[in-house]
Amino acid sequence: MKKILFSRPVFLLVTVSMVLGAFFRQELYAFLLSPDGLSLAKSEICVLNDSDLEPIVTIDVAKGATNIKLLFIGEEICSPSPENESLGTIRVSLEDGAGPFCEIEAASNKKYVLLSYDGKQQCKWGSK
User: Fold this and answer.
1) 60 and 87 in contact (C-beta within 8 Å)?
2) CA–centroid distance for 30 within its chain
3) Phi, psi (deg, nearest 5) at residue 23
4) CA 53 to CA 71: how far, in whole Å?
5) Which of 57, 44, 48 is nearest to 107 (CA)?
């Protein structure tokens, strides 16, 4: 029995299933908590890029998810929350994990529209 558990085919099968499981876990999370799929989220904070830049946007929802995405022009990103009303932070920068960046406190169930970003610390926001 011990030889079977540690054989190459079983080891390969376990390794492949772990890699695929890690990949599909993120896909399942995105499906279950995204507005495009079946949503279990009670609220969300969304950002629409209406600027002329393609910045990296981070949405950090209190007691919810944190999403980081390179946001192309006209594209939207949402971060779900398990609570009906929640607060979060939206951070915009041109480099991942590095400043300078602009930051805004956000409330759930509101779409924030990034109108412009100067590449430093100034963002101009609208809402829908």
Assistant:
1) no
2) 9
3) -65, -50
4) 9
5) 44
Biggest alpha carbon distance in the chain? 65
- Grouped pLDDT means (10 residues each) for the chain, 128 residues: 57 68 56 55 87 91 86 91 86 80 87 88 86
23: DSSP letter: H
Residues facing residue 58 across a β-bridge: 68, 91
The predicted pLDDT at position 59 comes to: 92
H-assigned helices in the chain: 2-5, 8-33
Residues 65, 46 contacting (CB under 8 angstroms): no
Coil/strand/helix, residue 26: helix
